[in-house]
Amino acid sequence: MNIFIMRHGQAAAEASSDALRPLTVQGRDETCLMAQWLAPQVPTFDRVLVSPYLRATQTWQQLSNYIVGTQVEMCDELMPNADADIAASLLLAYGDLHPDGNLLVVSHMPIVGFLVESLCPATMAPIFVTAGIARVSFGKEQGAVFDWLEGPHNVRPHYQQHCQALGSLG
What we know:
Layout: E1 2-7, H1 25-38, E2 44-45, E3 47-50, H2 54-63, E4 68-69, E5 72-74, H3 84-97, E6 102-107, H4 111-119, E7 133-138, E8 144-150, H5 152-159
Parallel strand pairs: 1-6, 2-4, 3-5, 3-6
Antiparallel strand pairs: 1-7, 7-8
């Protein structure tokens, strides 16, 4: 099983509530870049779990233009200050349903870092840039392995020509 953990794209600084902060143009561009980079590696997710906050749902909407999600669910356990151990247990339970599958999580800092740490106890919680994606894999005979963490700054040179508002990324 592979669990892909993604932080939402850049969001507006202010809104009527934290839950209603939308993606900025840069946030949409970051997500577009990451989707184009990830799609050849993972064309389909067996399950997608998304925080109910607007910026996370908009991030999934952007990704879904490039990658199919067979089952998509809003998940309160992925809100910014949720308990990472509870969320990790939920991810592992879903993993039992799809032991050879791919699971995507779209959430927020700090929980995305704490999820990696909870799934891979030998790893300190990494800091995710906006639209950053980590992969944690599980083999049949091994525990969780923190494979990588990538962000738009790494993939930009390869995909920027395909995004709409390129000027937003500098």
